[in-house]
């Protein structure tokens, strides 16, 4: 039986536990990224979904965060979905990303609203593993407004309606991300998505462990939704301090 591992992690623009990435030097940001790389490789993740990934932003010295993380690792395949673009002296370019040991195909990115700063969105891709096209969805929801999160999750559900969630012949998408709200809050985004996906044979992880803030976690706002057609072997929240979120890991097999 071949076992695979997926991790979801908000990398917080590479700032580590600092309150703002603009306060960090180039050396500090690169050290933070090296810590992230070490966590991912030690966990032996096959693919990683990440949020708050900068391609070129003034506040972290225009470092391409994904390229630094990829350097000298087995993660040779990547996809960045940009949801925020701002030109000028204080330029910004950031969004969500997928990093993988395996080829990535069928890429799609959807900002909820293309913004200059603070915009969220979701992305979809297929990861080709051992002859299987494994769909993955990565999302980041608004942290300020419950009503905005509901609108955003409805956009994701509209997209999922175009997928074959009831089919048995194809793999259903693994759905990951930073939801900025707990599962137990009735009427909020995760609860709404859980109700929808539970009707299509999904389970949500982690079941109990908390993910935010990393140094003293009080809430679970980072999740991985797994279709029941996968065999989930292990789930963990990794007790590491590489950003203000703790990574969620799910170990699974296919078939």
Attribute tags:
255 residues; alpha+beta; Deoxyribonuclease I, Chain A; 6-stranded mixed β-sheet; 12 strands; globular
Question: How is the secondary structure organized here?
Answer:
Blueprint: E1 3-10, H1 26-42, E2 47-54, H2 65-70, E3 77-86, E4 92-100, E5 104-111, E6 121-129, E7 132-140, H3 146-160, E8 174-178, H4 189-198, E9 202-205, E10 222-227, E11 230-237, E12 248-254
Parallel strand pairs: 1-2, 7-8
Antiparallel strand pairs: 1-12, 2-4, 3-4, 5-6, 6-7, 8-10, 9-10, 11-12
Q: So, CATH architecture?
A: 4-Layer Sandwich
CATH topology title: Deoxyribonuclease I, Chain A
Number of helices: 4
Quote the average pLDDT. 93
For the terminal residues, how far apart are their CA atoms? 9 Å
Shape designation:
globular
Helix-strand makeup class: alpha+beta
DSSP strand tally: 12
Domain module count: 1
The CATH first-level class comes to Alpha Beta
Estimate what percentage of residues fall within beta strands.
Answer: 35-45%
H-E order? EHEHEEEEEHEHEEEE
- Please state how the strands of the largest beta sheet are arranged side by side: 3-4-2-1-12-11
Descriptive notes:
The chain has 255 residues and is an alpha+beta fold. The protein has one domain (3-254): 4-Layer Sandwich (Deoxyribonuclease I, Chain A). It contains four helices and twelve strands. The protein has helices at residues 26-42, 65-70, 146-160, 189-198, and strands at 3-10, 47-54, 77-86, 92-100, 104-111, 121-129, 132-140, 174-178, 202-205, 222-227, 230-237, 248-254. The strands form two sheets. The chain has a six-stranded mixed beta sheet. β1 (3-10), α1 and β2 form a beta-alpha-beta unit. α3 packs parallel to α4.
């Amino acid at each position: 039986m071949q076992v695979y591992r997926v991790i979801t992690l908000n990398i917080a623009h590479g700032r580590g536990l600092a309150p703002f990435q603009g306060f960090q030097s180039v050396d500090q940001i690169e050290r933070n990224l090296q810590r992230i790389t070490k966590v991912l490789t030690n966990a032996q993740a096959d693919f990683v979904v990440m949020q708050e990934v900068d391609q070129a932003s003034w506040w972290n010295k225009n470092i391409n965060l994904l390229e630094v993380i990829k350097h000298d690792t087995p993660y040779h395949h990547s996809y960045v979905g940009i949801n925020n673009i701002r030109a000028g002296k204080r330029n910004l370019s950031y969004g969500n990303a997928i990093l993988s040991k395996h080829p990535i195909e069928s890429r799609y990115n959807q900002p909820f609203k293309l913004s200059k700063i603070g915009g969220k969105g979701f992305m979809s891709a297929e990861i080709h593993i051992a002859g299987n096209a494994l769909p993955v969805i990565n999302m980041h929801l608004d942290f300020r407004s419950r009503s905005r999160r509901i609108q955003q999750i409805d956009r994701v559900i509209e997209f999922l309606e175009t997928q074959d969630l009831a089919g048995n012949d194809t793999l259903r998408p693994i759905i990951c991300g930073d939801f900025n709200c707990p599962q137990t809050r009735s009427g909020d985004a995760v609860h709404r998505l859980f109700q929808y996906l539970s009707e299509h044979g999904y389970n949500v992880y982690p079941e109990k462990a908390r993910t935010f803030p990393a140094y003293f976690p009080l809430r679970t706002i980072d999740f991985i939704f797994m279709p029941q057609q996968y065999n989930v072997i292990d789930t963990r929240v990794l007790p590491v301090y590489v950003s203000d979120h703790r990574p969620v890991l799910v170990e699974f097999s296919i078939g």
